[in-house]
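B., you asked whether I could sanity-check this one before it goes into the benchmark set. Here's the sequence:
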Amino acid sequence: MGLRIVRNVRLWAREVRPTLALALPIMAGMVGQTLMGLTDTIMVGRVGVVPLAAAAFVIAVAHLPLVFGLGLLSAIAVLTSQAFGARRPREAGEVLRHGLVVSAAMGLLAALSMIALAPFLNRLGQPPEVVAAAGKFLLLFGLSLLPALVGHGCKQFSEALKHPWPPTLVLLGGVIINLLLNWVLIYGHWGLPAMGLEGAGWATLIARTLMALVMLGYVLGAPALRTFQPVRWRSPLSRERFRQLLNLGWPVAIQHFFEVSAFVFAAIMMGWISADAIAAHQIALSCAAFTFMCALGIGTAVCIRVGHAYGAAQYTRMRRIGFGGVSLAAGIMGSFGIVLLIAGKPIAGMFIGSPAVVSLTAQLLVVAAVFQMADGIQIVSISALRGLGDVRVPALIAVLAYWVFAVPVGAALAFPGHYGAVGIWIGLAGGLGAAAIGLAWRFHTQTGKAAEHHRSVPPVGAAFPEHGSLP
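And here's what the prediction gave me:
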């Protein structure tokens, strides 16, 4: 009995190391991407509370089409990883060819949606001075969504083929470019006028465009990826391929949309309180997003590795890969929670000088510290389920957690309960906890079914199945 337990522990531990090895560069790239938002927040915050509140408002609203697109494009990583596990490089090439079309189309739609929203900003109940400051930044940030999503599609493909470092280096290079352009354009250096918030918009657009071009050049020309290129780029596009991508991607996109829309609505509710509340929300959310990227990096690695195992019909490994990643994320996020709990006020003081905003941000970071582990568990669990191709029920779990629980509870605590901004964040924390429990249980049941009933099923990458829940 003892030897059996030791052997099982070794088997589980053996899966953690390759997950971490794949996750580290992905985490570095995602943290780098978040650093772009953090530097924008810090540098705009030095201009004043109103520009920071305007930036927070625009970024919150723009995240809706952005994360919808990111969810849709997650199908590229899942199908590429399953094709890789099934040793079907031509199929991976077809995923790339069709995935780039979907990336460009989604990026264009996202950009157009932000341009169409511009005349209606004053109808969202925000302070007039915030709406007035947001106009040009909204248009520039909206245009940057097109290169952001094209670059992300390339990133998904490269990571699924176990080449995560090149996209990571491109993202880190983009952070440096964005930082330099912010310094020049926000504050007015090298003979250019100080453009304030508008300068941050131009910096984001230029940096994301350069990143997308470099990412495209790597994916299309790198010798390491040559085996996985399409046989013929100009062959007629397949409706079945597009349907395969959309069937897998749209439930994830819906889940992303409803999850982030809960945080967007939280930002809008902050605007009903005060400009200080919006600014504090943005700072705390930026910090939470920074820590979340580490969990998301682990989740992405778990999704890819579960996809590899699923494509190779190694069903018993999927459970170990998934729950090994959940444990890893819970430990890392718990450590971040301790840091936020202890150092909330000094962290808030790095962003802005307003004592009122710093004090409120520190209170929000206490709530963020409490939900760190739940955030890590829910993102790794849902990512592992995507590796299985199980996307519809997890999307429903997320919608219920955020919109049936988090938003109503947060609104009730904030306004009738008079907890204000802190009440909104308590509701969000509860939603993350509910999602973590539901999604972890879903992965437990689905991997049990897969191991028991699907040992004789051919790899998913071998055909064009309807992706949904495992039966």
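One thing to flag: Residues 154 and 216 are 6 Å apart (CA to CA). Otherwise nothing jumped out at me.
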